[in-house]
Amino acid sequence: MKAKKLTEAQLRAKLAGDVVDSLFRKTWKPPAVSSIPAVVLENRRKRARTRILEALVSRGTVVVPRDLVKETAGLIGMWESVLFDDGFSGVEKYEIERAKEREYALALETQDPAEVRRVVENE
User: Fold this and answer.
1) How far, in Å, CA of 16 to CA of 19, rounded?
2) What is the value of pTM for the model shown?
């Protein structure tokens, strides 16, 4: 039986609950020695969470392999170390890579070897 296709809102909610929320610590405290106001840092963190979530949504599937979760956690750690600076170059690369994975991720979800092979050959 084929799985029901999720709407984008359902996909976003599922990825937020299953992956993204656990990667962003709920009790993050900005460093006390920063010259940037705490409210600005918290807003950056919220934008960072949204960018990570939207990058995963762009893959088009709720299936997030363990190695991608680990990569995402590492990226968030590096981004946090620069106080979630909006210009952090690592996140742009991450967003582009996730968007490029879309066709392959969706093909894997079909569990159809011919479809996966077609996507791989087209790349």
Assistant:
1) 6
2) 0.84
